[in-house]
């Protein structure tokens, strides 16, 4: 909105944090359950497929000529049908934001503060997110730059401290169950986080310099994907695929296993800072895009008045979105991929075709 | 939004909000209200309920400079339909909330272990307070309650004594091995390997250990010792390995960090100090049938020599090498023979080795692996290298 812009570098950092956030918690477990010791291959595969998706999004941004996805859709399909399509796009982002909030809430209540009601964790977390979205894109970009080194340092520390416990045998036999489980589970990481990248169609017009945009995006996904692959690999190498699948949050259990010479242990909450930071950025990007999108949908000048009322909605939605974690696990495994595919690929593809036709007509 | 006008009002209200929100946890517990649990024991009672024994530190005895006559730890025992229920019933006996993250040791009663321990381990892996860093052991020939009530000399907290003793045995003798909970659970669930478990023994008369007078003696009448390895079929304890078989087990899996090998030599005995070992296990397929090849490299020194050989000769250490190799190989073979013939259970993970090497073949034998294991050929190659002979160039005993 108010002409704030971010540099491609900041955009890349946002993409990295977005890729890692919440996927780090929900992806390794179900992946290890199905693809066993080859789960890491499945992530690499999804990232490769995801890169094609990113190229498609990037091509689309060029056609949108500096407009956001919301503005472009209204331009192509007109006031009524355009808004009809956008209702689905915005509701997807809104629901996703609520689910991400619930992820961090569930994580905190399971592992760290089990007796604190979910609402309070959600409200406290969301206050910071609202503040971030209020201050706008520039502040989000700059704070991503500030926090990125910390995330990297903690990740490097996390990896190095776990190296002594690695057992290479845990990855064998290579492709022991055949190729099928690897292929079929690749949808999981494709649904979270790659198809969710559709949210960046709202931000890309505000990134400075036309040229290195694609590079920043591709590089961001590659680095984020690399982090996800390393975490999944560590889960398999240290815990083994069986225990990784048995744990609700295998990556957190991994942090509990850190033990350097008997005195450097119990670091899981420090490592938990990675989860907090990455999920915060995922949340703030989503929340900012939802409010900006709705503001443009309603042709408002400023998205800020929407922040508080939508926040209340998101708190309620995050609590009622699913009744318990068992329901959520089934939801992630079966429902999310088709849902994300519809809104993250089919809907943009429709708009993309519209844009192409429009471009041809205007000649 | 008014809060964003960065005036004095904003600053004051932000500070006030922080004061309210950052005071601490929702359910904060002060340290002086917590009981720090260091060991837990579980068993079945006669009426089929779980018995839970909890060993809690008595902090005023541990930290003080002028100890009183109170014991450094207290134990509570409760019963319940499940372990969790028994744990919550502790509230009626103890005045404090139990803090579990410092747990060092979980002791399982022999009866419960023979019946199957998996269902009782669930709580210890599920509850968020437990770390995965504690050892699981079986109380051999004694009940859990007695074992956890023994006060140990030298080390004030019995659980700490047991934990360091397990680690010491594992590192300097190799006749037992510490098993952590996640390792145990993952091996129970693994079809290609059955777990082993540490045994704990009580020495001395049963009625003196739980009294503070026990540790007022220089040679405490009751004490806790680490026994050899218990053999588990899935999650049921079926028997024990003796000292030799346990050491053989640790050699096969390459767990031995340091140990001693004693063998007879002309007119006496020689003890070799083992410094490091490196074991390599591989599956070999010949005509579709698998066999296991184990290669063990051992490096050591002459530790104690009581036989008249001339260490000045260039080949003298080579002879000792051969003897050492023979002795270690014998230990390993004993271990394999006992598990193949007496128990018929694969505790070495040969099944997993075959699975990693040839997943297709593994699929065909997976479900009755134990019967195949009994017929499995194991080829052992030990290579010992003694490098140094310590401070003496020759045996101290003079010839003739």
Question: What is shown here, in short?
Answer:
The complex is a heterodimer of chains A (363) and B (400). Chain A has 363 residues and is an all-alpha fold.
Explain the overall architecture.
The complex is a heterodimer of chains A (363) and B (400). Chain A has helices spanning 8-20, 23-26, 28-35, 39-64, 69-112, 118-135, 137-162, 180-191, 213-246, 250-257, 268-297, 307-320, 325-362; strands at residues 259-260, 264-265. Chain A has 363 residues and is mainly alpha-helical. Chain A has a single domain (8-352), classed as Amino acid/polyamine transporter I. Chain B is an alpha/beta fold and 400 residues long. Chain B folds into 2 domains: 28-240, no CATH class; 244-400, GMP Synthetase, Chain A, domain 3, CATH 3.30.300. Chain B has helices spanning 8-21, 59-63, 83-89, 110-115, 118-126, 144-148, 158-172, 181-189, 243-252, 316-343, 350-357, 359-365, 369-375, and strands at 34-44, 50-57, 73-80, 97-99, 105-109, 135-139, 196-203, 223-233, 236-240, 259-265, 268-286, 289-305, 377-388. In chain B, the strands form 2 sheets. In chain B, strands 1, 2, 3, 4, 5, 6, 7, 8 and 9 form a 9-stranded mixed sheet that branches. In chain B, strand 1 and strand 2 (50-57) form a beta hairpin. In chain B, helix 5 (118-126) packs across helix 8. Chain B is globular and about 85 Å long.
* Quaternary structure classification: heterodimer
Alpha plus pi helix count of chain B: 13
Count all strands of chain B and give the number: 13
Low-confidence sequence ranges of chain B: none
How many individual domains of chain A?
1
**CATH homologous superfamily identity of chain A:** Amino acid/polyamine transporter I
Q: Main β-sheet of chain B: number of strands, strand sense, barrel status?
A: 9 strands, mixed
Average residue-wise pLDDT of chain A: 88
The poorly predicted ranges of chain A are none
């Amino acid at each position: 909105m108010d002409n704030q812009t971010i540099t491609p570098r900041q955009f890349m950092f946002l993409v990295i944090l977005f890729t890692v956030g919440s996927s780090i918690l929900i992806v390794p477990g179900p992946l290890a359950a199905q693809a066993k010791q080859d789960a890491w291959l499945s992530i690499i595969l999804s990232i490769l497929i995801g890169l094609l998706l990113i190229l498609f999004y990037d091509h689309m941004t060029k056609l949108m000529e500096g407009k956001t996805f919301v503005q472009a859709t209204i331009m192509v399909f007109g006031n009524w049908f355009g808004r009809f399509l956008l209702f689905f796009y915005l509701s997807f982002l809104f629901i996703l934001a609520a689910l991400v909030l619930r992820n961090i809430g569930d994580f905190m209540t399971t592992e760290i503060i089990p007796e604190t009601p979910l609402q309070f964790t959600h409200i406290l977390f969301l206050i910071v997110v609202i503040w971030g979205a209020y201050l706008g894109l520039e502040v989000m970009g700059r704070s991503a730059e500030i926090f990125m080194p910390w995330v990297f340092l903690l990740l490097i520390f996390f990896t190095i401290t776990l190296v002594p416990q690695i057992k290479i045998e845990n990855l064998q036999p290579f492709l022991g169950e055949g190729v099928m489980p690897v292929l079929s589970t690749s949808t999981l990481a494709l649904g979270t986080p790659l198809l969710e990248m559709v949210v960046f169609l709202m931000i890309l017009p505000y990134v400075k310099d036309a040229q290195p945009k694609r590079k920043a995006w591709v590089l961001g996904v590659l680095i984020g994907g690399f982090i996800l692959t390393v975490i999944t690999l560590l889960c398999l190498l240290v815990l083994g695929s069986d225990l990784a699948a048995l744990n609700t949050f295998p990556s957190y259990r991994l942090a509990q296993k850190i033990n350097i010479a008997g005195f450097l242990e119990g670091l899981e909450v420090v490592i938990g800072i990675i989860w907090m930071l990455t999920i915060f950025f995922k949340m703030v990007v989503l929340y900012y895009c939802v409010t900006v999108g709705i503001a443009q949908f309603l042709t408002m000048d400023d998205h800020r008045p929407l922040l508080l009322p939508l926040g209340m909605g998101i708190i309620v939605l995050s609590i009622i979105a699913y009744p318990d974690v068992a329901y959520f696990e089934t939801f992630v495994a079966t429902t999310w991929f088709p849902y994300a595919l519809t809104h993250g690929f089919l809907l943009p593809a429709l708009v993309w075709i519209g844009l192409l036709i429009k471009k041809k007509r205007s000649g | 939004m008014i809060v964003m006008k960065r005036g004095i009002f904003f600053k004051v209200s932000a500070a006030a909000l922080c004061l309210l929100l950052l005071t601490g946890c929702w359910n904060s517990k002060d340290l002086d209200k917590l009981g720090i649990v260091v060991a837990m024991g579980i068993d079945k009672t006669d009426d089929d309920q779980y018995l839970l024994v909890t060993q809690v530190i008595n902090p005023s005895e541990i930290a003080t400079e002028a100890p009183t006559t109170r014991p450094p730890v207290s134990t509570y025992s409760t019963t319940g339909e499940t372990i969790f229920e028994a744990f919550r019933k502790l509230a009626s006996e103890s005045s404090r909330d139990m803090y579990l993250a410092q747990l060092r040791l979980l002791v399982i009663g022999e009866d419960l272990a023979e019946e199957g321990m998996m269902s009782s381990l669930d709580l210890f892996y599920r509850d968020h307070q437990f770390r995965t860093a504690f050892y699981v052991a079986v109380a051999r020939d004694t009940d859990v309650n007695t074992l956890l009530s023994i006060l140990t000399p030298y080390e004030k907290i019995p659980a700490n004594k047991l934990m360091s003793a397990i680690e010491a045995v594992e590192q300097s003798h190799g006749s037992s091995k510490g098993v952590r909970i996640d390792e145990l659970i993952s091996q129970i669930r693994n079809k290609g390997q059955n777990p082993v478990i540490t045994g704990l023994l009580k020495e001395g008369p049963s009625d003196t250990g739980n009294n503070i007078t026990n540790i007022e003696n220089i040679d405490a009448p009751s004490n806790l010792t680490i026994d050899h390895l218990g053999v588990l079929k899935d999650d049921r304890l079926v028997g024990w390995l003796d000292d030799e078989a346990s050491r053989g087990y640790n050699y096969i899996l390459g767990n031995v960090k340091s140990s001693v090998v004693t063998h007879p030599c002309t007119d006496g005995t020689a003890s070799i100090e083992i410094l490091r070992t490196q074991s390599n296990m591989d599956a070999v397929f010949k005509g579709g049938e698998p066999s296991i090849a184990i290669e063990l490299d051992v490096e050591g020194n002459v530790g104690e020599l009581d036989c008249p050989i001339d260490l000045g000769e260039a080949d003298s250490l080579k002879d000792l090498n051969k003897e050492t190799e023979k002795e270690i190989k014998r230990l390993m073979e004993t271990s394999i023979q006992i598990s193949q013939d007496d128990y018929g259970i694969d505790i070495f993970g040969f099944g997993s080795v075959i699975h990693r090497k040839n997943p297709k073949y593994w699929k065909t034998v997976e479900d009755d692996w134990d019967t195949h294991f009994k017929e499995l050929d194991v080829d052992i190659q030990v290579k010992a290298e003694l490098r140094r002979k310590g401070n003496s160039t020759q045996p101290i005993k003079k010839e003739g």
